[in-house]
């Protein structure tokens, strides 16, 4: 093995290339953590097409966490009241296989659930998928992408006929108007944002508009910041559509030849004149017109979004409303333009390709589609009808299934729902009722481990080989560069081993993750996300490859011309036309009222990642963000009689948390902000999701984690 290993950052969906070198190559005296352990050296990979050598604090420090607080061997217990005891792999795997058989025989396959993660490698996802949706015959395999990207996925399906961001990172440097809505990209996707910010600074004609209730670091860099009221995104987007229609700034040829549904859309947006939108959104008519003019006058508009649109009870409608603007102006399918969803997790894109949500099958197929099911059944050698036509339980439906006793076997892998789910008291109570929970993770302790009967040690990044796809559809091979700690095993190996113990040796006869990937890509043939031309060997030899990449030699030898989807303006719908999908705004599922007069909005910080399972073990990041806090506007702070660092109790209809106040004008009066990263392991009673609610988008089933109504009560000093 070479001393310099090229791989991918395991944090966010930007997917930055990294070069890792072993401690023997680093300065052994200075390159040690506080406990004296040698730390692997890491730097950005200049040759990686997506990040070009750049890396943020998370990527730069990732190797510091790989040896700390690791789960070393399987552990088991009969009830949550007991301490864990060490178990062998054989004992743990036999117990799992036996329990699955019992539950399936007595209560049916739909009593079994797997809740996985965008941290999975594509190969992990694929075997989990094959085991649950294929062999076991239940679609109850959902992932934490449900909390993150499922509205983007659904929006693309409704509007364009298929999932798949049509844009690429090169568009950041080719656009003349970046429209960023519901995304603090400067902190959450910093390397992408660096590329955009450089382009914006160097080109005076390039506009940057940011829509966000907070004045974030991203908003600070914009030409125009629209600080809309939480939950009024559709009002704004329809209001921009109204003005474009009124000014006749439409691409009529594109609308006529490439879309359907425009007349219905115009009927809806007629209800969004500037005075109405200004009032609802809490922005000036002047700013609204400035934003609409940017869409009207720009030749290449690139929109970007993340949780601000997705984590909403009308998330799919928000995404479709944004795509409508691209369709009415024809801003899609050519360089510098298009609707670009930024994925949250490192392999959330790969998960979507493999079908890692409870309504999906591999290759952007749908569980509900009979032809799709038949194609997968035939490929997997299943009986006709073996794949259920019923979408499985979404993330939150797994919790409600536990509550009513319909979920009898729960397997959680590489995610931490005891911090990341909404309505945490209810979530934890449901987890406590689970008759049998397997928790498979690299780290111990974690909050979710408290609710498990079996703990399985998972190999983590750098200890297993596989692929990840980033936000611009670039597939990168992530090779193992060190052996797993203790008895940890790769997730895909664990799923395969359980499949074999259930009696399906032939279907799980894989000896390497390269074989797993080779099988998966055959299911992408002739699909939007085709990867039949990609293999581990080719990725190792040539570096990252962007899909679509068919296995046709004549196409592979051509210079890569298709960096974008829909360049021929034919979409993935049956008639090849994109659809205008018009929605009226419904607003927040839980608006403020006299009892709960503030809107709480939640978000992420630059250094921390999700529930801190990894970043909470990195000194530099903990020093950067030592404590949770609540942002509150000075006017509200004065009304409550509180000052900087005073403790505020935040109460919602579901729970209570406490945070020191950060008094700042970056948040609007009437709104407060709390970061999501602190679970009960890291801080006392400072969980953002103790407050949030689970009301979800009816199409995407993504909960509205972004906003809820709260009351604020100052805590007297002792
Ligand atoms: Fe890793 Fe994302 Fe930072 Fe890149 S931007 S180094 S992928 S966390």
UniProtKB/TrEMBL annotation:
<comment type="similarity">
    <text>Belongs to the prokaryotic molybdopterin-containing oxidoreductase family. NasA/NapA/NarB subfamily.</text>
</comment>
<keyword id="KW-0408">Iron</keyword>
<feature type="region of interest" description="Disordered">
    <location>
        <begin position="22"/>
        <end position="50"/>
    </location>
</feature>
<dbReference type="Pfam" id="PF00384">
    <property type="entry name" value="Molybdopterin"/>
</dbReference>
<dbReference type="Pfam" id="PF04879">
    <property type="entry name" value="Molybdop_Fe4S4"/>
</dbReference>
<dbReference type="InterPro" id="IPR006963">
    <property type="entry name" value="Mopterin_OxRdtase_4Fe-4S_dom"/>
</dbReference>
<keyword id="KW-0560">Oxidoreductase</keyword>
<dbReference type="InterPro" id="IPR006656">
    <property type="entry name" value="Mopterin_OxRdtase"/>
</dbReference>
<keyword id="KW-0479">Metal-binding</keyword>
<dbReference type="Pfam" id="PF01568">
    <property type="entry name" value="Molydop_binding"/>
</dbReference>
<dbReference type="InterPro" id="IPR027467">
    <property type="entry name" value="MopterinOxRdtase_cofactor_BS"/>
</dbReference>
<protein>
    <submittedName>
        <fullName>Nitrate reductase</fullName>
    </submittedName>
</protein>
<keyword id="KW-0004">4Fe-4S</keyword>
<keyword id="KW-0411">Iron-sulfur</keyword>
<dbReference type="InterPro" id="IPR041957">
    <property type="entry name" value="CT_Nitrate-R-NapA-like"/>
</dbReference>
<dbReference type="InterPro" id="IPR006657">
    <property type="entry name" value="MoPterin_dinucl-bd_dom"/>
</dbReference>
<keyword id="KW-0500">Molybdenum</keyword>
<dbReference type="InterPro" id="IPR009010">
    <property type="entry name" value="Asp_de-COase-like_dom_sf"/>
</dbReference>
<keyword id="KW-0534">Nitrate assimilation</keyword>
<feature type="domain" description="4Fe-4S Mo/W bis-MGD-type">
    <location>
        <begin position="2"/>
        <end position="70"/>
    </location>
</feature>
<dbReference type="InterPro" id="IPR006655">
    <property type="entry name" value="Mopterin_OxRdtase_prok_CS"/>
</dbReference>
<dbReference type="InterPro" id="IPR050123">
    <property type="entry name" value="Prok_molybdopt-oxidoreductase"/>
</dbReference>
């Amino acid at each position: 093995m070479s001393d310099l290993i090229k791989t991918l950052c395991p944090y966010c969906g930007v997917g930055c290339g990294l070069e890792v070198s072993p401690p023997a190559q680093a300065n052994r005296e200075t390159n040690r953590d506080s406990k004296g352990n040698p730390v692997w050296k890491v730097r950005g990979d200049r040759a990686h097409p997506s990040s070009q050598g750049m890396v943020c604090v998370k990527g730069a420090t990732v190797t510091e966490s790989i040896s700390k607080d690791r789960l070393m061997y399987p552990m088991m217990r009969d009830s949550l009241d007991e301490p864990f005891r060490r178990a062998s792999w054989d004992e743990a795997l036999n117990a799992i296989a036996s329990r699955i058989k019992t539950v399936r025989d007595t209560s049916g396959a739909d009593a079994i659930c797997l809740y996985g993660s965008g941290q999975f490698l594509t190969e992990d996802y694929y075997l989990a998928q094959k085991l649950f949706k294929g062999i076991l015959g239940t679609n109850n395999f959902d992932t934490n992408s449900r909390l993150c990207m499922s509205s983007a996925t659904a929006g693309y399906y409704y509007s364009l006929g298929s999932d798949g961001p049509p844009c690429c990172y090169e568009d950041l440097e080719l656009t003349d108007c970046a429209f960023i809505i519901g995304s603090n990209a400067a902190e959450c996707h910093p390397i992408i944002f660096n590329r955009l910010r450089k382009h914006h600074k160097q080109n005076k004609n390039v506009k940057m508009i940011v829509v966000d209730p907070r004045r974030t670091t991203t908003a600070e860099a914009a030409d125009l910041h629209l600080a809309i009221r939480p939950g009024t995104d559709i009002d704004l987007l329809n209001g921009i559509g109204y003005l474009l229609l009124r000014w006749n700034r439409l691409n009529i040829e594109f609308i006529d030849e490439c879309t359907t549904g425009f007349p219905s859309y115009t009927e809806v947006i007629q209800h969004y004149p500037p005075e109405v939108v200004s009032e609802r959104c809490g922005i000036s008519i002047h700013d609204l017109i400035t934003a609409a003019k940017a869409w009207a006058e720009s030749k290449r508009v690139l929109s970007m979004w993340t949780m601000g649109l997705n984590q909403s009870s009308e998330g799919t409608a928000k995404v479709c409303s944004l795509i409508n603007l691209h369709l009415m102006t024809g801003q899609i399918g050519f360089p510098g333009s298009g609707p670009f969803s930024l994925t949250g997790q490192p392999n959330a894109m790969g998960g979507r390709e493999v079908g890692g949500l409870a309504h999906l099958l591999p290759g952007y197929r749908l569980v509900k589609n009979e032809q799709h099911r038949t194609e997968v059944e035939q490929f997997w050698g299943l009986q006709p009808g073996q794949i259920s036509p019923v979408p499985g339980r979404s993330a939150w439906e797994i919790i409600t299934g536990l509550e009513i006793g319909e979920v009898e076997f729960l397997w959680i892998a590489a995610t931490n729902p005891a911090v990341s789910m909404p309505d945490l008291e209810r979530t934890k109570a449901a987890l406590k009722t689970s008759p049998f929970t397997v928790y498979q993770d690299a780290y111990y302790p974690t909050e979710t481990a408290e609710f498990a009967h079996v703990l399985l040690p998972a190999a983590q990044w750098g200890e297993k080989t596989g692929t990840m796809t980033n936000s611009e559809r670039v597939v990168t091979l992530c090779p193992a560069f060190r052996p797993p700690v203790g008895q940890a095993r790769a997730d895909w190996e664990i799923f395969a081993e359980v499949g074999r113990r259930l009696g399906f040796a032939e279907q799980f006869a894989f000896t390497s993750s390269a074989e797993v990937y080779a099988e998966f890509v055959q299911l992408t043939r002739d699909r939007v996300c085709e990867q039949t031309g990609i293999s581990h060997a080719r990725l190792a030899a040539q570096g990252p490859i962007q899909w679509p990449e068919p296995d046709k030699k004549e196409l592979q030898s051509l210079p890569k011309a298709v960096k974008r989807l829909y360049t021929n303006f034919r979409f993935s719908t049956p008639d090849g036309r994109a659809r205008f999908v018009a929605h009226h705004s419904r607003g927040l599922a839980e608006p403020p009222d006299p009892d709960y007069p503030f809107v709480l909005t939640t978000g992420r910080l630059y250094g921390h990642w999700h529930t801190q399972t990894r970043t909470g073990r990195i000194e530099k990041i903990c020093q950067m963000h030592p404590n949770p806090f609540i942002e509150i506007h000075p006017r509200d702070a004065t009304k409550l009689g509180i000052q900087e660092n005073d403790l505020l109790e935040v109460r919602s209809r579901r729970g209570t948390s406490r945070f020191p106040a950060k008094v700042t004008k970056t948040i609007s009066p009437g709104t407060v902000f709390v970061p999501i990263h602190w679970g009960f392991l890291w801080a006392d009673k400072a969980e953002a999701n103790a407050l949030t609610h689970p009301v979800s988008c009816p199409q995407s089933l993504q909960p509205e984690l972004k906003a809820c109504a709260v009351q604020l009560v100052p805590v007297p000093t002792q």
